[in-house]
Specification:
This protein has about 500 residues and is mostly helical. Helices cover about 65% and strands about 0% of the residues. It has one domain.
């Protein structure tokens, strides 16, 4: 008879795929795995294996990007070898190779914390290049960024392991992901991801001010971490913990202001470039609006100026902006209602994934690196290998189709436009399916794999095991025909 506690057995046994994988490399998590002082002679614990796998994936990513590291991109080799990276391209496009200070000398197209990182690495590389002209500045800049972004990716995996001490093999979904292999250093997104991850860890450790500071810094690198504060408010309302949320939002807003206002006051035009660019930017490849515009060309003849609704929106970017914002707002309102009506308070990771996924689904811009935002969120929200692997296949298919589309943009098409649209549609569909599966598990908590191992919400911090506010049962009864009492957290 097994002596392992039931919740530890379930950590490696709740998914058939990961159960088999865990047995292949050492078996399910043992009875003493939650104790860091247990088995002092055993070095390769589950967490260390996962971190090592993450390092291996990142090392292979660097190898995969090696053909582009010198910046000598001849005959579109950055596309034919799938090694393009904004990091290297923008070293020259943003004037860092000339020693230009971000925002002061050049209007950087990213939020300020990302611009700070670009300058903090780029300016020393430029100075080194002036002192030693024989070095390739682009290679040094890319490698330095790859080291920093790789460290942030490993740190993110470490935070996820800390959040899932009873389910460390779940994090292998992140560590072994082909998404990590292909996309980690295409842009600086892991800066925001790492800051957000540490912010959630601070929230879990019941330090709301520190959590707010880190999430605010993440939002000053890429805006999306700030989106999570909305559903966190609704969760706090349901648990009667609004004061702690207030501390977090005050800290997030405060630190965002502190890092942004100096740049805004000193170089307002440079600071506004990010917002102006996003406002004026047309429909991007692979979005729902791009797919709709393609379908317009198939379903509408263009007679009498009738180009179809999506083509019309593409030609009226201002209207499209408001429609995109409106649909995202409606999705967030729906998520808020779901939080309040669910039979049990949802986990923070579940609603965070839903909000960020909704933003991407309705956005007019979905750059290839944005998939990195979803990867850690979906692993924490729904660590089921089958659906995540299907989504990963769709993302990799889109990645390949996107590079084929880039190759054909300046000449003879490499693939039919319909093939690229199909790849885009499959990506959208699989993200939508993941959202549907997460919603189902919120509505039926007994299906939630994480709650097989934890009593409530391991990411909840002050929300974990907190009882619902008394008004929740009455609120639910107003919307549900056959209300069931809210389950105590």
């Amino acid at each position: 008879m097994s002596t392992e506690p039931d919740h530890l057995e379930k950590s490696a046994g709740s998914d058939a795929f990961i159960r088999g994988l865990s047995e292949a490399i050492g078996g399910p998590l043992g009875a003493h795995a939650a104790d860091p002082n247990a088995r002092p002679g055993r070095f390769w614990t589950a967490a260390r294996i996962v971190l090592a796998l993450c390092c291996l994936t990142l090392a292979l990513h660097w190898v995969q990007k090696t053909p582009c590291r010198d910046g000598d991109w001849q005959n579109n080799m950055q596309y034919t070898r799938f090694c393009y990276t904004d990091v290297l391209a923008l070293y020259y496009a943003e004037g860092l190779n000339e020693g230009k200070v971000p925002y002061r000398d050049h209007a950087v197209e990213y939020p300020v914390v990302t611009g700070f990182l670009m300058g903090a690495i780029g300016l020393p590389v430029h100075a080194l290049g002036r002192a030693n002209p024989s070095i390739n500045q682009g290679t040094w800049f890319y490698d330095a960024n790859a080291l920093v972004l790789g460290a942030l990716a490993v740190a993110t995996a470490g935070v996820m392991l800390a959040l899932r001490r009873r389910r460390p093999w779940d994090v292998a979904l992140f560590a072994l992901s082909p998404i990590l292999l292909l996309i980690t250093t295409i842009n600086w997104d892991f800066l925001a991801i790492g800051l957000y991850a540490f912010g959630i860890l601070a929230w879990t450790r019941r330090h709301p001010v520190l959590a707010g500071i880190l999430i605010g810094l993440g939002g000053a690198a890429k805006l999306w971490p700030l989106f999570v504060l909305g559903p966190l408010l609704i969760l706090a309302l349901r648990a009667r913990r609004v004061l702690e949320w207030g501390y977090a939002i005050a800290a997030a807003v405060g630190v965002w202001v502190v890092v942004n206002v100096p740049v805004l006051l000193l170089w307002p035009d440079s600071w506004l470039r990010f917002f102006n660019l996003n406002t004026s930017r047309p429909v991007d490849w692979g979005t729902i609006w791009y797919v709709g515009r393609f379908l317009d060309t198939k379903w509408n003849t263009g007679v009498d100026g009738d180009l179809g609704p999506f083509q019309w929106l593409s030609d009226h970017v201002g209207v499209l902006n408001w429609l995109s914002y409106g649909l995202f707002f409606l999705a967030c309102a729906g998520i808020a209602l779901l939080i309040l009506l669910a039979p049990r308070r949802p986990r923070l990771a579940q609603v965070a994934f839903l909000v960020v996924a909704a933003f991407l689904i309705f956005s007019k811009v979905w750059s290839q690196q944005y998939v990195l935002w979803l990867l850690p969120l979906v692993v924490l929200a729904r660590p089921r290998w089958g659906a995540i692997l299907a989504w990963t296949v769709a993302e990799v298919g889109y990645f390949a189709a996107f590079y084929a589309e880039l190759l054909g943009a300046g000449g003879k098409p490499v693939i039919p436009e319909g093939t690229f649209v199909l790849a885009s549609g499959l990506r959208l569909a699989t993200v939508g399916i993941l959202c549907g599966l997460v919603i189902r598990e919120i509505w039926r908590p007994r299906l939630d794999a994480v709650r097989e191992s934890y009593a409530d919400d391991p990411d909840g911090g002050i929300l974990d095991a907190a009882p619902d506010a008394p008004w929740i049962a009455d609120f639910r009864s107003r919307f549900l025909r056959k209300p069931t009492p809210a389950t105590p957290a």
